[in-house]
Amino acid sequence: MNSHDDNEAKYEALGSALRKAEERRRTFVPPTLDEAILKQARAHFGGSERREPRGSFWWSWILGASLAAIALCFVLLRPNAEKPRAFAKEDINHDGQVDILDAMTLAKTGTASASEVEALALAAVRLDRKPGS
């Protein structure tokens, strides 16, 4: 036999000895005795159900109401979000005014013809237009 086989035999003998020791260690407890011990433990520790500490019911309501009030304040007192403004189709840069900057922006994009850019520039410098347009 070589040393590998010797080691395997030793490991097998050790495993067998451990299994036998475990079998001997186990003690049979009759179900009636087990139930009696469990019944006494439940009586001693106040039952199997977990009880909440006294007053925690009210604290949970107070906490919930506080959180709801804070959330309501955030909803009602938040700054009014600006509604999206409607811009004229000529207002390319959406600054609220149709001016020469819109004509320059349109010319830079290169998506419009020269006549469209010229028309926008003329509309931007026209003197008879309404304020804000």
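Second entry:
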Amino acid sequence: MTEHTTRTMGVDVGDRLSRYVVLEESGAKVAEGTVATTPAAMGRLFLEQAKVVFEVGAHSRWMSALARGMGREFVVAQARRLERLSPSGKKNDREDAHALAELSRTGSSHLRAVRHRGAKAQADLAVVRARDTLVRASTQLINHVRGVVKSVGLRVPSARRERFPAKARQVLPPALLPALEPLLAQIESLAGSIAAYDAAIEALIEKDHPDAKPLQEVPGVGPITALTFVLTIEDPSRFRKSRDVGPYLGLVPRQWDSGTSRPELPISRAGDPFLRRLLVQCAHGMIRHGPATALGRWAIQRTEHSGTSQKKRIVVALARKIAVLLHRLWARGETYDRNHGLGDASATA
């Protein structure tokens, strides 16, 4: 059972060392110091009778599990904007720890709690992210080979990843073979590993995450995006309305409303950047494959005579609509209809 206490401890977590500050209910500082960012050292620190507050990050998962296991009240904070912690713009670990404790002590709305996904979802999501890492490595190698070949006046024909090495060998001059053959071998190896991850992802959907299967009925949404969406959201009931998913994933513009000044700002980029990138890719794919759906027609009509910056905003708006649609299909158990029943997904961008 979580133990209630009137003291608050803010921990500015570093990769090796972390700074902490403990405040009384009145706001008076009663302790501060530095501690190693290890389970053993944090376990000793959490013996302090205080509510623990730290930011989400690489260490926050095991720290929250440690605090929970010790019965300590804790908050994993989404304090993303450093200026909220350090208005002067200067980075100071002690001041940041103090600010975290103070924001929690006063119940400030600037300190938004984060809920970590479950261990199973985290492990399955690691499979998807590992595949993405290999894809990016393969793309970098392929682009390098193309660039080198182009520099001698030749060109590798377009080809899928697994066929690229064979196509490249057909045009490579002998002088470039010593430099590029090892890279082609790596591309072949990566293609095989990526295919294995693809099979693993399909198996995960089939066995453990069947909710991701209906989401693939949406054009442009494949198994990777569908599974990532399910694993990232984890529980569709956490959102009262499907349209709340857009702000959660950072797909809505930041707001600055002061007097008569209401500038058009970029998106907030809150939430998971990996899923946001996948949804933007889906939006590009939906536009590229034509007006086969109501959402596709919506986007194409608006991009037809738009400039570059406006097209980017429309793509982001479409990504947001896709996210809203995916949540609705999942939460309500509805079947996707290309032309009707868009509901929340047809909301104004």
